[in-house]
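Course assignment 3, question 2. Fill in each field.
Student: A.L.
Task: Predict the tertiary structure for the chain below.
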Amino acid sequence: MRLKQLRKQRNITQVKLAMDLNMNQNTISRYETGSHQADYATLIKFADYFNVSVDYLLERTDNPETLK
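Answer field:
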């Protein structure tokens, strides 16, 4: 998942992302390292937060744009 890449590009810490999304920093870390997988609702939160598509987050496409 591109979560870490997106977070670093925007200079956001794991703590800030966790606070903004009402999550635990350890959970963010586990998603970034791949030791845990985000559920559908969490993927949508990440996609909305970074304004990218879920497919982009999951590396199914290199196009970050969302279709609305």
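Instructor remarks: The chain is about 55% helix and 0% strand. Helices lie at 3-9, 14-20, 25-33, 40-50, 54-57.
Grade: pending
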